[in-house]
Design a protein that fits this description.
Layout (H helix, E strand, L loop, with lengths): L2 H22 L9 H4 L10 H13 L9 E6 L9 E5 L5 E5 L30 E11 L2 E8 L7 H4 L2 E5 L4 H7 L9 E4 L3 H7 L5 E5 L3
Parallel strand pairs: 1-8, 6-7
Antiparallel strand pairs: 1-2, 2-3, 4-5, 4-8, 5-6
Length: about 220
Amino acid sequence: MNIERRHFLAGAIALTAGASAPLLAQPRRALPQPENLLPAQYRAAEMLPLLAEALESLDRHGRRVVHRDRIGLVDFNRDSGERRFQVVNVESGAVEHEWHTSHGRGSDPSDTGMVQSFSNVPDSNASSRGAYLTANEYYGKHGRSRRLLGLDPENDMALERAIVLHGADYVSPEMARDTGRVGRSLGCFAVAQDVRDTMLDLMGEGRLLYCGKAA
């Protein structure tokens, strides 16, 4: 394990240890039913299953998710040329923001723009489905970034794999318009550089990010 990875793991382990006590003290409250959370423009049948999964996950992991007013939702039923990273207001159901985001090379080896498969295996360079808890910020190879803790068996290696939120030059609306897709990551959720700070602020520490591909 190299020095950068050791520092990465050490910082996140310290974060998790420090956060465990207050997280247990967070009260749980009933969530609105999924169908009532969907704004009118997203009530298509194909949108409901993934949002329903995210809300169920928010309830299931509620003791660890400090901030429950908004969640991040990444819909890998959509291709990378679409704005598939959504910030959803849990109370109102409003989609506050939508951005293009990457998926992992290992999930789309032929560069089709669509996720073909998921993996949680180190060095697979693939995307992993499931619920993530946003963790601390750091500055690394891609500048300002945010660590993610995988909460499910399908993504519990996220920390070790350094799956994070960051900005990248290979993601932009112009690229999506001109080529029909954006670039691929090594499994991270990369967004355009000009929306990076907004995304990182809205998806601050202690929030739920859920990604998947509904059947």
